[in-house]
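Entry details:
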Amino acid sequence: MGTDFDQSTAKYVIRARINVDGVVDKPDVVGAVFGQTEGLLGEDLDLRELQRTGRIGRIQIAIRSEGGNSTGEIVIPVSLNKTATAILAATLETVDRVGPCTAKVTIEKLEDIRGAKRRKVVSRAISILKGWEEDISPGSDEITTAVTKGSKVQVSKFGPDKLPAGPGLAGSREIILVEGRADVINLMKCGITNTVAVEGTHVPKSVVELTRKRGKRIIAFLDGDRGGDLILRELMQVAIIHYIARAPEGKEVEDLTRREVTKALQAQIPAEQALALVRDRRASSEQKKRPTRPPQKVTLTRREPPKRSDDFRKPEKTEERRAPPRRRPVVKRAPVTVDEAYVSKIADIKESFKALLFGEDKKVIIECGVAELAKTLEAQEEVPTIVFDGVITQRLVDIAGKKKTKLMIGAAVADIEKKPSTLKIVTFDDLGH
């Protein structure tokens, strides 16, 4: 049965099935639909009035008779809202006779024309994305999300260590090194598949050998925190790196949007220049920690020896000398008291870029990478203590507050604007590590 209609103005389509105990024709069904619904819901939802004002399209009816009975389909294109469309559909089911014959109308489905169009757009976009490695400008969030899911590919494995890698790594002349698996996945969502993760500050031998292959252009894409600095220094010592790209300060590659990823890769700089920036930043940080005291000026007076009576007396002469700076008394910082169960673990994770989550019994309940710490915390109900080789950021403090964390020990601490009064923050330096 053919029930084609113009979809250019319709928002929804009502599709119903009609069964008649007798032989009837299309005009009989049309008359029954209009006649038995007239005045039932008032002028606002009267079929004739809706059709006259263009809020419903032409009612399509296909009917055929066989064995003394008639069956068919009723299709009504509608430009009303969802509520009015549902009421109109329910009204159709009140039609119980066509001419002298008993009839029954059953709603089969309500179609969203725009939803069908969106699905068509998503399907086509997926096919385009699979054949196009360049970046696609994002459309609506709904379409972009659906396209990303539809074009998702599996994370590959590289080398004897089975490192997480993008499927485009093997055949690419340009290689992007990232810190962890989550970074690989995020870049794959952005259409970048020539990636491999080093999985920590200790760079695997297979990655070192990969960077030394001729004809390869190596880019390290690192987090914008202290952990990224550590990996950068390690890579520059053992591997051949041509360019460095960094996430914005305080952010991780796994959390960047498509726009932020593109911007960071476009801003890549030569590796030696990036290393020099890290060294300068460290030197500046150490200089700020050193106490400084301006030199004090002391004025000394020296008198000339007496002269003979026939000489004029010369005026007294003064000269300015700099006195050596006084030594500042060493002020000892009050020791921070932390349970040895936590302190003893610092040596195990230092320079490893790992995180340990403790339970109330002071035993490790979860061990993970620092890159996955935020997501791991989010998945827990309560974490009393956290010890990790990374920077304590505002984001981690906010999450820890929700998880009733009482103690957080990290390698360093960023600028913290607010923290729960019940949370104690300690660095490795505070504990002498």
In short: DSSP finds 13 helices and 19 strands in the chain. The chain has a mean pLDDT of 81.
